[in-house]
Amino acid sequence: MSRGDSGFIRPGYDGLEVPDAPTVGTATAGDEEVSVTFTAPSDEGGSAITGYGVVAVDSSGNSIAGTGSSSPVTVTGLTNGTSYTAKVWAINAFGPSGYSAASGSVSPAAPTGLFGGGAAATTTNVIQYVTITSTGNATDFGDLLSARNSLAACSSTTRGLFGGGSTVNVIQYVTFTSAGNAIDFGDLTAERGNAAACSSNTIGIFAGGSNISGGLSSVNSVIIATTGNAANFGSLTVKNYALAGCSSSTRGVFAGGFANDSARTNVIQYTTIASSGSFTDFGDLAAAKYSLAGCSSSTRGVFGGGYTTAAINVIEYITIASAGNSTDFGDLTVTRTTPAACSSDTRGVFAGGNSGPTKYNTIDYITIASAGNATDFGDLLQATENLAVSGCSNVHGGLS
Length: 400
What we know:
single chain, mainly beta, Immunoglobulin-like, Neuraminidase, 6-stranded antiparallel β-sheet, 4-stranded antiparallel β-sheet
């Protein structure tokens, strides 16, 4: 017995013995789908709960349902760019419960990766994008407020933020579903180039970087869905710039960089995104390096490229929930420093960078769960260096 998509209760229903409704949690949009978390009811009715259902409803009342045995339940077959709310129900041998309250509104979207700014023949303001689940060349998305390189980027499922860059403190944002130029968001607490960033679906973190006074240890945070100036979050373990960041939904991780204005470092450090404060040692990269790029699934962080005593093509990974040293993953298709990276929860994409005077437009991809060498994805609009950590996406591991 089950509840039909229209809410019709099938024969055999006994309203005295059905479960109470679950408590709806968070709805997270994906590519043509929405995943909904919930808490099971304490009163299961006259028999054990045998399953759960979720119905996603658009503004016109059209609905699509999905079922599962536990939280979360994913509803597939939705329309990208359309707003949905979701309700959950439980079922036992006597029939389905009533609906839960509605979730917040979310809009499924294609898994889009953005790369902003950088230095080609001259510094550029161009934002370009790729669809992470496919392959092919990048496409023009719009423009940053001004031409800049060495900026950092983070994102929610709906917004991409670009912060800092050489000699500036400006934060700007774009909306993934609407290609166009960036809009002013607010300011970081200090000018910072070569910073790193990571995020959950609500909080963006900008860490380290450098300005005219040298390296910075300070870390800023923003609420991605609002606009306004950044707040102080805490401090890295040392002054550090040209580092790389990645995240799960709860933990932000930063690796490598140029520490204390004196030497490259192999240190990996982490923080709890929801709790501002100082960072804690996580482990070590395989070698001290800077100007690398990071991306992640919900469980695994991946760092690629960078500079040791020369540009390298090494990719290595960590398990975000378990502190420890990195493990070899494979190699990028070309040796490069200052690449950019973004990801879905399954695929990582590395773009641009340089090796000595040679600038690359090469885009590579990896399957995050499967170690191995990167595969050619396509090309950026032009060969572009100094894109380091200026990639973001609407489906990365921090959003899962």
